UniProtKB/TrEMBL annotation:
Pfam families per UniProt: CxC4
UniProt-listed InterPro entries: HMGXB3_CxC4
Organism encoding this protein: Gymnopilus dilepis
PANTHER family: EXPRESSED PROTEIN, SWIM-TYPE DOMAIN-CONTAINING PROTEIN
Name of this protein: HMG domain-containing protein
HMG domain ranges (all copies): 252-382
TM spans (from-to): none
Length: 862
């Protein structure tokens, strides 16, 4: 049957180019657009930009386009696109500005990653009395964020320092610095404000809508003609994947791609128009792109009865082809090749398409490879259909691992791309429960007296306690390393070394006497709490015993230091530990004592005393300490419980692919909404940037996670075998709320161990909100990050538990760091993506990474 006219074919190619984001079509205000030029003969987008103004008069759109066709009065494709697709692509949006007196940075693309070089395009209001759309200019910049590089103005192409470029320079700095008052200091100053020239207010992209200017593009949202679910690549398949017919690689293009019963048109948002055997068909030319070349072929199509220009076309999966738009088809092995590359090493789209261009030239392809923009959109349409399911569960840990490792990753996209659909677990739902009574317990420490905690730490920290007389300076109290200087004589060096050693000994002796002076006060203060505490401390560190030369085992020192820490007593003991201690108090046997290994300080002391003598028995003082510390833990826990909590909500089952919009995907379904805790200060808000002080101060910083122009990245959870169990996008900076909300909303039962690099403050955060749900959970800092928590107690560090729990030593506590090091390969690419693309790109990366690990597990098992 006949073919479409040349003009209609060019318009159809133009629409495809716009919808695939290959040709720019930006809306920068309610009535103002910026569009790419279009070559009707070659059917390709040009590297020129034009303004288009649209004014709605009733139901009619009055448009004026400054492209050559629009100026000459011919039928302009841009105006026709507004008429055909304006309602679909540019629906009414309150975020669109009505102010057209702004300089707008509407397009920003990476030209080079190291060092970073960008291509920025601005729409600049001209200076003077003329205010029509003709008065605006397009300014392009290729260079660094400092403003260095090449500047070009559409109105003054021969000038490199006109007023339009000056305005764009300032706009770039406002965008980079997120400061509306920022000015460019590298360019000419004659056109800057303050020199008598009227400069309009500038706007930039990557800020909140209330501050900056919102822009949107018509492209990147079109669905492909192919719609069947696509199985994973052969090298990433799992034994648990559904059995599907193998997709053949494409070595030679077919002469004709025929219609089949599954052929369809993607024009309907809620479904597809399917092939009808009773309707006529037509044959049109198409292009097929493979791994080494492009082929020209024919495709059988059928007019779609439901849309203006699209056709019903074949899916192509049985031929190994992905049908993008009935004119461009791409082989599955080509698309899988990019997936393999970017999940193995840092491979941005621009770099990969450059490699493919050269490969096509090497193999003598009759046509060049796809542009970066077009390939990017086709790959994302393909990735949406990939059947990467059931790959976020470790075969060894099962669906709900007892040990989870959490970490925030600086994998963030621009804030300008944030959409209302983003819905992390921290979101408060209208039906969320309100826990108005929940609050932080007062004085949750093991020892309530802050002065006692301070002098205990002072007394027991440092060299082992020993008795020294007044004025005595023992030579062996401290050692000083020799540090002779090369330019000094041996005699002078010796004298200086002796002086340093003497000073160090005097200081050490003074410190020791200061510590000894605190012992009687400590015994007195402990006695007011419980007599057994005072007796045990006096037995170990009493002055009479020290005078006799007694040296207590270091295990007692560790126990008292843990009790004197600024951590909550619930960090020392979970409810499971309390149950174990209660059993031991009733029946103090070796077997019952062995279950106290998650309180290693107490466990070590008990085992030490049980091992003495012929009869396994602990002293009355230690027995009294056990009873007291159990009572103290139960008191704080009961005081923390204001409501039972943990009940499931009637959360509606999400659609299978909702994660592509919400940015939240975990292997477990959501079963609760995050409650509200109005009595807890700043609940639900991001943790304040900078040093998060707690007690004497924690050295952990949150500011490293959230850069001003980017979202906060993603929160990822791993098992100890580095399998990712899920992730969610963080709209702002990372905080404890991310971990709390993700676990509470998705885990039916809280994990026994949470490893997180901010666990010192995560534990009280959890217990203040849901103490019943997290009563059996221990929060620990992994080995890698422990060194940065010098001010935090040892009870919140994983290394403390290894000696009494050999199984914990096998935990890959830095699994998150291992996973993050892989994720960083895609950080640069993601930082310039839209929200939808960033989420899909991240999900595919994590799924492929998981699958490669799970395949190794299957191979070992076999």
């Amino acid at each position: 049957v006949g073919s479409i006219s040349t003009d209609e074919a060019s318009y159809a190619a133009f629409v495809d180019s716009v919808l695939s984001a290959e040709s720019d079509f930006w809306q920068i205000s309610r009535n103002l657009f910026v569009v790419n030029g279009w070559n009707k003969e070659s059917k390709i987008a040009m590297n020129t930009f034009y303004h288009l103004q649209m004014v709605a008069v009733g139901l009619k759109r009055d448009c004026h386009c400054l492209c050559p066709d629009g100026r000459e009065g011919d039928k302009c494709f841009h105006i026709r696109f507004i008429a055909d697709y304006g309602d679909e692509r540019f629906p009414v949006d309150h975020r669109m500005s009505e102010d057209e007196n702004k300089t707008v940075l509407f397009s920003r693309n990476v030209l080079q990653y190291e060092p970073p070089v960008y291509h920025n395009v601005f729409s600049v209001k001209a200076f003077g009395a003329l205010t029509s759309v003709k008065a605006r200019s397009i300014v392009e910049h290729s260079g660094e964020d400092s403003g260095l590089g090449t500047w070009k103005c559409s109105r003054d192409p021969k000038q490199h320092d006109c007023c339009h470029i000056s305005a764009a320079r300032d706009s770039l700095q406002q965008h980079v610095q997120l400061d509306l008052s920022a000015k460019d200091v590298n360019g000419p100053q004659e056109f800057h404000s303050g020199t008598g020239t009227s400069i309009p207010v500038f706007s930039f992209l990557e800020v909140d809508v209330s501050v900056g200017n919102y822009v949107r593009d018509a492209g990147s949202c079109a669905a492909a003609v192919s719609f069947k679910r696509i199985p994973p690549p052969q090298w990433a398949k799992l034994s648990s994947d559904p059995v599907r017919p193998c997709i053949p690689p494409v070595h030679q293009a077919p002469d004709l791609i025929p219609l089949t019963s599954s052929s369809s048109c993607p024009c309907k948002p809620d479904g597809r128009v399917l092939y009808s055997a009773a309707s006529e068909s037509r044959v049109e030319p198409c292009e097929i792109y493979g791994l080494t070349r492009m082929w020209k072929s024919k495709i059988e199509l059928q007019n779609c009865p439901s849309c203006k220009r699209r056709f019903i076309g074949p899916d192509g999966q049985e031929l190994g082809l992905f049908n993008w738009n009935n004119r461009v088809l791409v082989s599955h092995d080509l698309l899988d090749d990019y997936t393999s590359c970017y999940t193995s090493s840092e491979t941005p789209f621009a770099a990969w398409t450059s490699v493919m261009q050269r490969r096509y030239q090497t193999h003598g392809s009759p046509g060049s490879f796809l542009s970066e923009k077009r390939f990017r959109v086709i790959w994302f349409a393909y990735a949406r259909l990939l059947e990467l399911d059931n790959d976020m569960c470790c075969r060894k840990c099962g669906p709900t691992p007892n040990v989870t490792i959490w970490d925030g990753v600086t994998l963030a996209f621009s804030r300008k791309n944030l959409k209302p659909s983003l819905c992390p677990p921290t979101t408060i739902h209208p039906t969320s429960k309100i826990r108005s009574k929940a609050r932080h317990p007062k004085k949750p420490h093991c020892l309530e007296d802050p002065c006692l905690r301070k002098i205990l730490r002072h007394t027991l920290t440092g060299p082992q306690l020993r008795w020294i007389e007044d004025g005595e300076v023992p030579d062996d109290l401290v050692s000083v390393d020799e540090d002779p200087s090369d330019d000094e004589s041996d005699e002078i060096s010796q004298l200086k070394a002796e002086g340093r050693a003497a000073a160090a000994r005097y200081k050490a002796a003074a410190d020791m006497r200061s510590r000894l002076e605190c012992i009687e006060e400590i015994v007195s203060r402990l006695g007011r709490i419980d007599a057994s505490l005072a007796r045990l401390f006096d037995r170990c560190y009493g002055l009479d015993n020290l005078v006799r030369g007694y040296k207590a085992p270091s295990a007692y020192t560790t126990l008292f230091l843990h009790m004197a820490s600024e951590d909550s007593v619930l960090q020392l003991m979970t409810f499971s530990d309390m149950e174990a201690l209660d059993r031991f108090i009733k029946y103090p046997t070796f077997e019952n004592a062995s279950h106290l290994n998650m309180f290693p300080a107490l466990y070590t002391v008990i085992m030490l005393e049980l091992s003495k003598g012929t009869q396994p028995k602990i002293t009355n003082d230690l027995y009294g300490l056990c009873r007291w510390i159990l009572l103290r833990c139960m008191t704080v826990l009961v005081a923390s419980i204001t409501e039972c909590g943990g009940e499931k909500d009637g959360v509606s089952t999400s659609l299978k692919d909702d994660w592509q919009k919400t940015g939240c995907l975990y292997s477990m379904p959501q079963i609760r909404n995050r409650p509200q805790y109005p009595s807890i200060h700043r609940d639900g808000l991001s943790d304040i940037g900078g040093q998060a002080k707690r007690g004497s101060g924690c050295g952990k910083y949150y500011s490293e996670y959230g850069q001003k122009r980017l979202t906060g990245g993603i929160m990822v959870v791993w098992c100890t075998h580095t399998v990712c169990y899920g992730f969610h996008c963080i709209p702002a900076a990372e905080g404890r709320n991310e971990v709390f909300s993700a676990i509470y909303t998705h885990w039916e039962k809280a994990p026994e161990i949470i490893i997180y690099d901010y666990a010192c403050n995560l534990a009280p955060y959890l217990m203040a909100r849901e103490p019943v749900f997290f009563a059996r959970t221990k929060c620990l800092i992994d080995h890698f990050h422990s060194t940065g928590h010098s001010a935090c107690g040892d009870a919140c560090k994983l290394k403390t538990y290894v000696s009494s729990n050999p199984s914990l030593d096998r935990i890959n506590s830095s699994a998150a760091e291992c996973g993050n090091s892989g994720i960083l390969r895609i950080r640069k690419s993601v930082s310039y993506m839209t929200q939808d693309h960033a989420i899909i790109y991240t999900k595919v990366f994590l799924s492929i990474r998981n699958r490669l690990i799970l395949r190794k597990q299957e191979q070992r098992k076999n």
